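Amino Acid Chain and Its Fold in Token Form
===========================================
Scope: a single protein chain, as residues and as a discrete description of its fold.
Amino acid sequence: labelled as such and written in the usual single-letter residue code.
Position: the record begins directly beneath this header, with no further notes in between.
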Amino acid sequence: MLVTLFAITTTASRSQGMLSGFMQGSGNTGTSVSYSTEQYSKYYIGDSLTDNPMLGTISTRSASLYVVGGLTSFLDLVVALPYISASSSAGYWETINGLQDISIYLRGRVAQFKTEDGSTLDVMLGGGIATPLTNYPNNAPVTIGHGSTNLDGRLIVQARDASTGLFVAAQGGYIHRSNVTIDRGFDVAVPDNIDMSARIGWTGPVYLDAWIYNTIGQSGTNIGPGVPFPTNRQSYLQVGGTAAWQLPFLPELSINAGLAQILSAQNVGKSTRFSFGINYNLPTWGGMQL
């Protein structure tokens, strides 16, 4: 199934890329390996755009493993694990690389409305946890994450037209983040976030979509002298698109590519991200009998 793995074209640490509106199906398992690169030379202090010659261009590269399995016809298990490297082109900042946060999610369809021609409206609930696997630095402008454990709950709604393959989807969620210990030896609060996204696309031999994503920090500080980076309130508005192609000579295999751009933000780099991935559907195993 081509459409179930397009979400991996967004960085796995971004929750809006973890759960799509397409259920996997009982006993079906999809895997994906992806690579993405993201760069910025300007960043927002509060909502003011600036740059810093002592940072230059900050680049982040990640390789991610993503697995989604259909436990039943209405319940999926999703696991993602990224390896990330972050570096700057100026200053004396050390390149940081390593495994980041493992994410484990469940997605359940709680209602489905179907027309005579097979068009559907699905309502889903999702929830999960993301927690660090390594003790990476978290209090620097060049790093791979906050180091917090995150609890995420979300509502997903998707409508798909059976005759054309067109679909529209929307979701919203709340992400609670734990406190973290920084290098100064004390704990600080990492702000929670509310996020919302919308997606429109087409499914067929080729998958295409366009999406918009907005995440809003619920508290926190602005970047400034002596301010711990994990305490910063991070919000941003981002747009992007995805394309995927199922190989006709090997239908279990597909390739995808994506592009994303931050339009506005608070305490976040104004970045552009490119990504591509290879998806493979494993043999059906039957699913759980519930």
